[in-house]
Amino acid sequence: MPGEAPPATPVSRPTDTVKMKRGHADSGTPRATAPSGEPSHARDLAACCVDVYSHPVARWLFGESFHPGGLALTQRVARLAGVGSTSRVLDLGSGRGASAVHLAETLGCEVTGVTLEATGVEAGQHLAADRGVGHLVEFRRGDIQELPLGARAYDVAMMECVLSILPAKAETLSRVRAALKPGGMVVVTDVTVSGPLPEELRGVLTVAGCVGDARSLDGYARLMSDAGLEVRQVEDLQSTATSVVRTIKGKLLMAELASKLGKLPLDAALIERAKALLRGVQRLIDDGLLSYGLLIAVEPRRG
Predict the structure, then answer these.
(1) Strand partners, 230
(2) Which of 165, 202, 228, 292 could form a disulfide with 241 if both were Cys (CB 3.0 to 4.6 A apart)?
(3) Per-residue pLDDT for 60 more than 60?
(4) Strand pairing report for 88-92 and 154-160
(5) Is there a domain that residue 29 lies in?
(6) How far is residue 108's CA from residue 140's CA, in Å, rounded to a whole number?
(7) CATH no. for residue 141?
């Protein structure tokens, strides 16, 4: 909640996943591995980002939906892709289920979420049950670069803040295309990088911001086209990126106040470094080097 202080200690994360409904077998321990030939830093990036976003402090900073624009952007892009009550949606990188459950609750569609988080399946199922849409939503745990997705099974595939961290981008998009029904849609919302990042920000943004392998809007569009998809819509959502920085600044101010009041054991120097980082990020956004983007593409087969 906006008025809450950040959690002081991390929560435990069980390694076992719950059994999934609708007869899907557990995919086992996920592996954030890329095809042979990928550099090791690329293979580790997805797993690293999952660890970062699984931390309770990260959930406090970024919110449960874990992507810029939040559920409002999820709702908007779903409507742009034509999601309705008869749609089957594949939510790739569903995390703890916020977007999947929101779509089922507001649009009445069936959603399958795929998450790499150790507690993602259980958290998503609990959220779906609490919102009364457990019959519409299911979750599977596994690496979307490897987990069988089915063939011609979905009307829409959504990838929110996911494509940027995948080492095997082209191969994954091809697999996603194969999972779509003829005329199905792929929606990508993600961090965009349009030039070299400053050395002093590159390392922390690679991990905390998961931009280590992000592309420009044109770069993402080329990947989608190369996978046989027809790109229909491209948008630069710079204001969305700025809004994220503004929100985190506000929460840091709350954390700083809580620290000064003795309510939160937090190093003042750490807060100052975080403020400096955010100032640097905002400069990159203002200069057009760092932003957030939206792409919608269609599977061109006609039956």
Answers:
(1) 298
(2) 292
(3) no
(4) parallel
(5) no
(6) 20
(7) 3.40.50.150
